[in-house]
Specification:
By secondary structure, the protein is mainly α. It is built from three helices and two strands; from the N terminus they run αααββ. The protein has a two-stranded antiparallel sheet with strand order 1-2. A hairpin with a 2-residue loop joins β1 and β2. It starts with 9 loop residues before the first helix and ends in a 6-residue tail after the last strand.
Length: about 100
């Protein structure tokens, strides 16, 4: 097996579990330790790739938001007061929240 530069200790995993209020067994501690360190190892492989000639990007696809034109429209018709259970003047009256 290749020597790993970064490793998450079992104490760190126990600390994370305590912060997350999760009880883990010794068997799970061994499993999570191995799995998390494998994940870090795979990320370290990405660090080995030469990216000096590649410009930084925020997203791999050139996406932009497609927005509709903002047009002012009336929100409620005047007939809303006819179907509202209670009104006060031109306003709809709602039950009091406790």
């Amino acid at each position: 097996m290749v020597e790993r530069k970064k490793a998450i200790s079992k104490e760190q995993i126990e600390s994370i579990a305590w912060l997350a209020r999760i009880e883990i067994s010794k068997k799970e501690l061994e499993l999570f330790s191995r799995q998390l360190n494998d994940i870090l190892f795979y990320f370290s492989k990405i660090d080995e790739v030469n990216t000096k000639s590649i410009p930084p990007s925020y997203h791999v696809l050139d996406l932009v938001n497609v927005l509709r034109k903002d047009e002012v429209k009336p929100s409620l018709s005047e007939d809303i007061s006819q179907i509202a259970p209670q009104t006060k003047g031109k306003f709809v009256k709602a039950p009091r929240m406790a």
